[in-house]
Amino acid sequence: MDAIVIAGGIPQPDDALYTYSNGNSKAMIDVAGKPMVQWVLDALGDSKRVKNAIVVGLSPKGELTCRKPLHFLPNQGRMLANIVAGVNKSLELDKKSKYVLIVSSDIPALKPAMVDWLVDTSMQTKDDLYYGVCPREVMEKRFPESNRTYTKLKDMEVCGSDINISHVRMATEHLDMWEQLIGSRKSPLRQARIIGIGTLFSLLTGRLTLDDAVSRVSERIGIMGRAIVWQHAEPCMDVDKPHQLEILRADLVKQQRKISSKSKAMPKKMSKARPAKTMKKKSGAVRKVAALKVARTKFKPKPRRR
């Protein structure tokens, strides 16, 4: 499955991340020693389910790398247009392509196993759209100070994921509706209003369950949708505010230190496993046994004549 990485956003002077970006793309903000989007590409590159990585909104001059074939497309001006361009590129690479991963460039804590889990879990059915959500308790256990925006449903409070799966035909159908929903992605109330007054009323009165929400959105747009409930917070922990950026910087630095300390400790453990003296003693013993066998064979006494 191809992964479309959306990286076209450039923070403006009124954006809280503007001072961190220096007028460049948000995706290129440094996180623990490398661009934020590079962490995402590393996860996709090590995924067993990703074929190609298609970055929309950045230039190959940024020296980004990926272990999977990497393709770049210019920014199309709007998020939906960027997604459509990415889908068209995926179909250009393989006309038989049916589904694509749509990945935000601002989830640097994403891991390869999480990408594979999403693909394997989603492909158990044949829906049009797989949209991930993270329960509040999962997010706040992993990132207690993340201060995410949650949608309060009857059965749970959730925030949205930033890596989802879509059928390629979604790039050519219901574009007006998608434009409105994507433009309101930070406001569950505005999205509910777009879907319908009944949905808005149910959300405001706390009567809407997750299954109800999926059913109403699917019916309103005319698709088959499925909610994927994450038990990992990383795919849903994006960088919208400076404090979220600092949380992820500190978290990834901590992870790098753990990996570094483990790699330094490994050679010492290996050297203690088999000391050189023990190997010599064993090899000497083996030689003695072999020599004894030869001697017994060479000097085997002849049987006596009767």
Characteristic terms for this protein:
11 helices; two-stranded antiparallel sheet; 306 residues; Spore Coat Polysaccharide Biosynthesis Protein SpsA, Chain A; alpha/beta
Structure, described:
There is one protein chain. With 306 residues, the protein is an alpha/beta fold. The protein folds into 2 domains: 2-173 and 223-247, Alpha-Beta Complex (Spore Coat Polysaccharide Biosynthesis Protein SpsA, Chain A), CATH 3.90.550; 260-298. The chain has 11 helices and 11 strands. It has helices at residues 18-21, 36-45, 79-93, 112-122, 136-142, 175-183, 188-195, 197-204, 210-221, 242-273, 276-298; strands at 2-6, 30-31, 34-35, 53-56, 70-73, 99-104, 129-135, 151-152, 157-160, 163-167, 225-229. The strands form 2 sheets. Strands 1, 4, 5, 6, 7, 8, 9, 10 and 11 form a 9-stranded mixed beta sheet that branches. It has a two-stranded antiparallel sheet with strand order 2-3. The termini are far apart. Residues 275-282 and 292-302 have low confidence and may be disordered.
Compile the SSE list and pairings.
Elements: E1 2-6, H1 18-21, E2 30-31, E3 34-35, H2 36-45, E4 53-56, E5 70-73, H3 79-93, E6 99-104, H4 112-122, E7 129-135, H5 136-142, E8 151-152, E9 157-160, E10 163-167, H6 175-183, H7 188-195, H8 197-204, H9 210-221, E11 225-229, H10 242-273, H11 276-298
Parallel strand pairs: 1-4, 1-6, 4-5, 7-11
Antiparallel strand pairs: 2-3, 6-10, 7-9, 7-10, 8-9
